[in-house]
Design a protein that fits this description.
The chain is mainly α. It has one domain: Substrate Binding Domain Of Dnak, Chain:A, Domain 2 (Up-down Bundle). It has helices at residues 3-8, 15-38, 45-66, 72-90, 96-117. Helix 2 packs antiparallel against helix 5 (96-117), helix 3 (45-66) packs antiparallel against helix 4 (72-90) and helix 4 (72-90) packs antiparallel against helix 5 (96-117). The relative contact order is 0.18.
Length: 118
Amino acid sequence: MSLSETVSKIDRLSDEQRECIENCEEASEVCEWCADECLGDADMEECARLCRDVADLTSLHARFMARDSDYSGQLATACADACEACADECSQHDADHCQVCAEVLTECAESCRQMAGA
């Protein structure tokens, strides 16, 4: 079963929450990939660190939204901030993994900002 199918079964979630959960999970995966690709390159250390932070934050935020945590809104703000910082860093590098990561994180930051304001 796909993530989208699983999330659709949580009937109390709005469409925006479902989209944000999916965006967060995608961001977590792409950041793990990007961080792994950056390992061993001294010029990419900051990129790898930010990607690891975002991977953890987005994964946690998705879980908080799925269980309707009272802290989800606060975490959404931190998640959006981290996604934006990481996207800025990744966009400075020519590597394909960084460019893909920056694109995914921009979308994730937008949906997290919506959740922070909800």
